[in-house]
Write a structure and sequence with these properties.
three-stranded antiparallel β-sheet, mainly alpha, three-stranded parallel β-sheet, 414 residues
Length: 414
C-alpha cells in the first residue's frame, strides 16, 4: 500500500518531465494536486527500486496506472511490477487494472495476480513467427483464392488466441510479411473493392394495413427503433410543441458550394414536408470555422430557393453551443464521455488502440473539459470522446476538439 499523497515540491515539474511527459502535460498534471501527488510518489517508489529515473516507457505506464486506477490503495502494489519491468505493455496493464478492480477487498493474491495478468510472460519474435506461420498454413487455400480480399482478422485472432500477451503491432507486422511472401505484391485486381453479394430479403407477413402502419408519430413501433423509459414522455412533449405537424430539416455544412447530390436531400426533406402540410428548416451545421465562409451560407440558401423551396426558418448549430456544452457535461457525469489525450494519428481508422484514459475519474474529465473551454490546452492536446461504438464499428468518436480559430458567429466565445 502507498502512503497518503505527498505535497508537490519545486522539483515536481522536472520529475514529471523526466519520465517523458511534455512540458504542457507536466503543467496540466501539476494543476491536479491529487493526481500529481500520487504520480510523484509512484515515480519516487520506482526510482527507489531502479536506482535511477524511470525511462519513458516505464513513465508512461506509471502515469496511466496513477490516472486509471480507482482504488489507489493498491497503486504501490502495481508500481512495484511496473518498475521491475514485469508489467511492460498496455495489455498487461489493462489486465492488472481489471484484476485489482475485481479484487478490492482484502490483500491481493500475488501468485493469482501474476498468472491472470501475464506478469513476467515474454513472447519472443520466434514464437510469433511460428504461430503466424501455422495460422497462414491453416487458411492457405482460402488465402490463395481470395488473396488480399481475405479477412486478415482471422489470422490475427488465431494468433492472439495462442499468444494472449503478444504485442499486437508485432503480430500484424509478421502477418503482413508472411502473407506478402505467400501471395507476392498486390495486383490491380487486389486493389479493387470486393463486391458484396446482395442480401436475400425475407418477405414479411403484413400484420396491419398500409394506412395503419403509416400513422404519423408512430415510427417508434418500427423494427430497430430504440425505446427507453423516457421515450413516450419525450414524444408527448414533442407533440405538444409541434401539434402533430410534420417538421423536417436540411442540414448542410457551409464549407462549399452544393453539388447535384444535395438536390436529392433538398427535395426529399422540403418535398416531404410540403406534401404533408408541414414545414422544413434550413439548418447550417456550422461547427468547423476553419472551412466555413459567408459566401457558402448565401450560396446554399440561394440554391434551395432556386429549386423552388422556401425554408420556414434558417437556424445554425452555433445557436445551440451553450446547450450542447451542457449536454456534454451531462454525458461526462453519466460516465458516457471522457477527456482523452490520444493524438489524431493514434485514433485514425476503425481499429485504433483503446484509449488509456477511457476509465479516468469523472471529476477529472469534468475539470479537463472546462479547461478545454478556457483555452488552457494546445490544439490536439485534449479531446472529449463519447463512449459508444458507431454503426460502422468505430469506437469512441471525438465530440469536442480544440481549434484556435474565431467562429464567424460566436467569435472567441467557443
Amino acid at each position: 500500500m502507498m502512503a497518503a499523497p505527498v505535497s508537490v515540491s519545486a522539483s515536481g515539474f522536472e520529475l514529471l518531465c523526466g519520465i517523458g511527459l511534455s512540458e504542457q502535460k507536466a503543467k496540466e498534471t501539476l494543476r491536479n494536486q491529487a493526481l500529481c501527488g500520487l504520480l510523484i510518489q509512484a515515480i519516487e517508489q520506482a526510482q527507489a527500486i531502479l536506482g535511477s529515473t524511470p525511462d519513458k516507457a516505464t513513465g508512461t505506464l506509471l502515469y496511466n496506472a496513477a490516472t486509471r486506477l480507482k482504488d489507489q490503495t493498491h497503486l504501490g502494489f502495481l508500481v512495484k511490477y511496473i518498475a521491475k519491468k514485469e508489467v511492460t505493455s498496455d495489455l498487461q496493464l489493462n489486465a492488472s487494472l481489471n484484476y485489482i478492480k475485481n479484487h478490492q477487498l482484502g490483500p491481493i493474491d500475488s501468485a493469482d495476480f501474476e498468472r491472470e495478468c501475464g506478469i513476467g510472460v515474454v513472447v519472443t519474435p520466434e514464437q510469433i513467427e511460428e504461430v503466424v506461420e501455422a495460422a497462414v498454413d491453416k487458411y492457405r487455400n482460402q488465402l490463395m483464392l481470395d488473396r488480399y480480399h481475405f479477412n486478415m482478422g482471422l489470422l490475427m485472432g488465431e494468433v492472439r488466441n495462442k499468444l494472449k500477451w503478444a504485442d499486437g503491432k508485432i503480430i500484424k507486422n509478421e502477418v503482413d510479411l508472411q502473407v506478402l511472401n505467400l501471395l507476392g505484391p498486390k495486383t490491380e485486381a487486389d486493389l479493387e473493392k470486393k463486391t458484396k453479394a446482395p442480401k436475400q430479403k425475407t418477405q414479411k407477413v403484413a400484420t396491419e394495413s398500409k394506412e395503419e402502419s403509416a400513422i404519423n408519430g408512430e415510427n417508434f413501433k418500427t423494427e430497430g427503433y430504440v425505446v427507453t423509459a423516457n421515450t413516450m414522455d419525450l414524444l408527448q412533449k414533442h407533440l405538444e410543441i409541434t401539434g402533430g405537424q410534420v417538421r423536417a430539416r436540411f442540414p448542410p455544412e457551409p464549407n462549399g458550394i452544393l453539388h447535384i447530390g444535395h438536390a436529392k436531400a433538398i427535395n426529399f426533406n422540403f418535398g416531404y414536408a410540403k406534401a404533408n402540410d408541414g414545414i422544413c428548416f434550413l439548418r447550417y451545421d456550422d461547427t468547423n470555422p476553419e472551412k466555413e465562409e459567408e459566401k457558402y451560407f448565401r450560396g446554399i440558401k440561394d440554391m434551395v430557393e432556386w429549386l423552388g423551396y422556401k425554408p420556414s426558418a434558417v437556424t445554425h448549430a452555433s445557436d445551440y453551443f451553450d446547450q450542447l456544452y451542457d449536454w456534454a457535461m451531462e454525458l461526462i457525469k453519466r460516465g458516457q464521455a471522457y477527456a482523452c489525450h490520444q493524438k489524431v494519428d493514434e485514433i485514425k481508422g476503425h481499429n485504433p488502440p483503446p484509449s488509456p484514459w477511457r476509465d479516468r475519474p469523472i471529476e477529472e474529465s469534468l475539470i479537463l473539459f472546462e479547461e478545454m473551454r478556457k483555452g488552457m490546452f494546445a490544439e490536439g492536446e485534449v479531446t472529449l470522446r463519447m463512449k459508444l461504438i458507431m454503426e460502422d464499428g468505430k469506437m469512441d468518436p471525438v465530440a469536442y476538439r480544440i481549434k484556435y480559430t474565431p467562429h464567424h458567429r460566436t467569435g472567441d466565445s467557443w
